[in-house]
Amino acid sequence: MLAEPISFLINAASTTVGVDLSVKNIPSNSGFELPLTGGVGTGLLYAAGALLVVGAGLLFVRNRRNTRN
Questions:
Q1: What is the rounded CA–CA span in Å between residue 1 and residue 40?
Q2: Of 12, 26, 29, 55, which one's alpha carbon is 20 to 30 angstroms from that of 69?
Q3: 46, part of any domain
């Protein structure tokens, strides 16, 4: 991305732009390393959350059955 915006005017009489809008392709993400998202860490958190929900549901059902008897 450019540091400063490029201003230009588009109207019905003109179809050309007076500014060179060529884009330079910079390999390797311009030297920045993107963080790793997803993967095993989030999968473990999802599994732990699912176990908590199932466990809470089982406790609720067991408590409800004990209350009825």
A1: 33
A2: 55
A3: yes
SS3 at position 25: coil
pLDDT, tens digit, 9 for 90 and up, residues 20-36 = 667 677 666 666 777 77
Say how many domains are in the chain: 1
- Tell me the C-alpha distance between 19 and 8, whole Å: 8
**Stretch 2-11: mean pLDDT:** 73
Dist. CA 21–CA 23, nearest whole Å:
6
Q: What are phi and psi of 5, to 5 degrees?
A: -70, 155
**For residues 60 and 68, what is the distance between their CA atoms, to the nearest angstrom?**
13
